[in-house]
Design a protein that fits this description.
By secondary structure, this protein is α+β, with helices and mostly antiparallel strands. The chain has a domain at 16-81: Double Stranded RNA Binding Domain (2-Layer Sandwich), CATH 3.30.160. The chain has two helices and five strands, in the order E-E-E-H-H-E-E. It has helices at residues 40-61, 64-70, and strands spanning 16-20, 23-28, 33-37, 74-76, 79-81. The strands form two sheets. The protein has a three-stranded antiparallel sheet. The protein has a two-stranded antiparallel ribbon with strand order 4-5.
C-alpha cells in the first residue's frame, strides 16, 4: 500500500520468483518490475519495497494513469485493475540454427 499522504492504493499482483544460481529473482509481469535477493524471503521483501516505491513515485509525479495504461491496466469504477495472468507454464522449444 502506498504511503503517499491522502492516497490508499491496494492491488493484488502476480509475482513470479525464479532461482538463478544462489539468488532469487522476484518479477511481476503486470508491472514489468523485478528485484533479487539472496533468499526467497529476501526477494519477496525487496519486491514489496520496490512496488511501494514504484507506486509512490508514480503518484508523486502525477503519471500513475499514463504508466498503468501503458502497462495494459484498465480503470474499472475508478479503480485500476491489472491485466489478468492466465497461465504460467514451462514450455520446451527445439531451435535449429542454420549458418
Amino acid at each position: 500500500m502506498s504511503r503517499v499522504a491522502g492516497v490508499n492504493f491496494n492491488v493484488s499482483l502476480p509475482v513470479v520468483i525464479l532461482r538463478e544460481g544462489k539468488h532469487f529473482i522476484a518479477h511481476s509481469p503486470v508491472l514489468d518490475l523485478s528485484t533479487s535477493g539472496k533468499s526467497f524471503e529476501e526477494a519477496k521483501r525487496r519486491f514489496s519495497e520496490v512496488v511501494e516505491i514504484f507506486f509512490e513515485e508514480l503518484i508523486q509525479m502525477g503519471t500513475l494513469d499514463d504508466v498503468l495504461g501503458d502497462l495494459g491496466w484498465q480503470k474499472v469504477r475508478k479503480k485500476w485493475q491489472p491485466p489478468t495472468l492466465i497461465a504460467q507454464e514451462q514450455e520446451n522449444f527445439r531451435l535449429k540454427f542454420v549458418s
